[in-house]
Structure formats: structure tokens, C-alpha cells
């Protein structure tokens, strides 16, 4: 098949990573997928480096130019399906008239209700299928007006890494200035209020009472950085909290960690959590959004109810005290991601959905 993936986002985020994994996976399976991307976008650049066929759209009046490009691509009949990977792409594909010509699928990665304006509802009604990245996202879409029979769930995936060698772990810990066996807790993600990093800093005060050498590594940048740095200073944590900023080679973070924490209040899914679990890191997350679809509490990770310092501290302490428990959590987490959330599983599920939509168009 020849699907056309449309993604007009300029920055590199989780959705763009999934699009690139999908494109690579389709090529590996013999499907000549193509991409429509904004000129200068991170996804377009990486796709070209991977020898993916990319149609570049100028950034002025982006959606209208993309709509015209999609309309032109569809004229010769080689493209069999259009897949809008983010919100701007949904608008562009709808404006192009693609839903009248080929199956039109939309990726949905947020738990917010669908827009209630007539144009928002019309775009989603035009879709042959809405692909939610978790059951929780699918349920939110249905509750806000999406047709249940159009929803499909395809969990996002990560590449399962090689196991971290002792040498790589030592080098990673040296990079972050971690001495010996000092416990290192970590979190990766944008520093935003709803990402909850504040609660990890607060919990570190309690954790440090039993584990005085413990440190917290926050990989990522964002609007909350200054406020979080001020909080760490106010709580007397000094350089116990490492503000790493954006880390391009994020594997150097995972390789160094003893515990991964995801204190997010509102998650449709989370690639960082999946990556940490795939790296065999015992992981703790808030029981919010779709995170309970990833972690089986007490088996492949730990879930805490939310921003409660004592509960977070207790979960971390249990992992740090009991190495056998930590090892079992890490191994079970890796196995769960390998079985349910790998990049290969995601691509296979997408191909299955594409085939279903194409059969439906033929039978219809």
C-alpha cells in the first residue's frame, strides 16, 4: 500500500517520533509510504535522512498550502490512504477533500474533548477512522461526540534498546556527577505545571532523610524551570537536584538512573515512561490518564494516586531498600513494553487498521 502521512508540526515531539517510527516500519514492510511535512521541520529533516519520500510545504499559510499539495498528490491515484498525524494536518487533509477520495484516518493523542464547533466536529465526522493512542483517549473522544464505531486503539511504541552495560552505566553516572552507588532518581520531559516535577523535588526532601546521598535528575526544559530551581533552593536541596536542560542523547539519562518517576497529572500515554521501562528502570507514575494502561501496579512498575509527598517517598524508598523487588519491577517493565508497546507492535497495528480501512472502501 502507499499511505500518505501528513504532519505539519515544526518541533520534535512524541507524535513526530511516532510518525518517523511508523514511516520506517512501513518501508521495512514494503509499503512505499510518503510524508507531507512543513519545510524546515524536525520530522521532515529526519525523514529525509532515513530516505523517506518527503513533500515539503512552505510555512506561510501552512494549512492551505498543505491542502493544495495533498490535493495534487491524490490526483494520480497512487496514494491509497491519508493519515493526519496532528491537528494542523487534520485541517489540511480535510480542506484538501481527501476524505471524499481515499480512506482518511486521524491520530488522536490528547485526552481533551473534541472541539465542539461545527468545523471541528465536521472534520472528525469525515474521518474513516480515529486512531487513539490509548483506551483512555478513545473514551474521552467518544464522550465528546466521536462515533464509537470509528475509534480504534493503537498504542504508541518505542524501540527496545540493548541492555545497559556496567561500563555504559558508569560513564553515564560520571557524566551527571553521581558518586559510587548514590541513588539517582530521574524524570524526562518538558518543565510545565501539569508535568508535576514540583512534587518530585518536594518528595526528595523526605527521601533524603533515609537516603542522604540521593539525587534527582530533571532532563528537559520549559517555562517552569526558574520556579523549580527556586523551589529546590528554598528547600535547601542545592545541587541535589540536577537541572540538565534538554538532553539530546537521552539514553545517557536512562543509563544512569536507579528509579524513573513520571509525576504527570494528565497523560494520554507517555513515551518517556515506555523508554524508561524498556531500559529496565523501576518506574513510578501517577495513576492518571492512560498511565495505568502501561503499568501494572506492583508488577511492572508502581502507581501512586497523585501529588502526595509521603506516598511518592514511600514508593521510592521501597524500590531503593529492596534490590530484588527493584530488579523484578525493572525486568517485568521491560517485558511489558516489549510485548505491548514496542515500535514493531505499533507499526503492525497501524498496518492492520490501514488494511481494514482499505477493505472497507473496496467493499463499500
Topology:
Elements: E1 3-7, H1 14-28, E2 34-38, H2 42-49, E3 53-57, H3 62-74, E4 81-84, H4 87-95, E5 104-108, H5 118-125, E6 129-132, H6 135-143, E7 151-153, H7 166-175, E8 184-188, H8 197-210, E9 215-219, H9 225-234, E10 241-245, H10 251-254, E11 259-262, H11 271-278, E12 283-286, H12 291-294, E13 302-304, H13 309-321, H14 323-340, H15 343-363
Parallel strand pairs: 1-2, 1-4, 2-3, 4-5, 5-6, 6-7, 8-9, 8-11, 9-10, 11-12, 12-13
Helix pairs in contact: 1-2, 1-15, 3-4, 8-13, 11-14
Cα radius of gyration in angstroms: 22 Å
Q: What strand line-up does the widest sheet have?
A: 3-2-1-4-5-6-7
| Largest sheet geometry | 7 strands, parallel
Order of helices and strands: EHEHEHEHEHEHEHEHEHEHEHEHEHHH
Tell me the overall shape: elongated
Secondary structure: helix percent: 40-55%
Number of helices: 15
Average per-residue pLDDT, rounded, comes to: 95
Task: Note the beta-strand portion.
Answer: 15-25%
Calculate the terminal CA-CA distance, rounded to whole Å. 18 Å
Low-confidence stretches: none
Structural class: alpha/beta
SS elements, strand count: 13
Protein architecture, described:
By secondary structure, the protein is of the alpha/beta class. Helices cover 45% and strands 16% of the residues. It has 15 helices and 13 strands. It has helices at 14-28, 42-49, 62-74, 87-95, 118-125, 135-143, 166-175, 197-210, 225-234, 251-254, 271-278, 291-294, 309-321, 323-340, 343-363, and strands spanning 3-7, 34-38, 53-57, 81-84, 104-108, 129-132, 151-153, 184-188, 215-219, 241-245, 259-262, 283-286, 302-304. A seven-stranded parallel sheet has the order 3-2-1-4-5-6-7, sandwiched between helices. The protein has a six-stranded parallel sheet with strand order 10-9-8-11-12-13, sandwiched between helices. Helix 8 links the parallel strand 8 (184-188) and strand 9 (215-219). Helix 11 crosses helix 14 (323-340). The radius of gyration is 22 Å and the shape is elongated. The protein starts with a strand and ends with a helix. The relative contact order is 0.12. The model has no long low-confidence stretch (mean pLDDT 95).
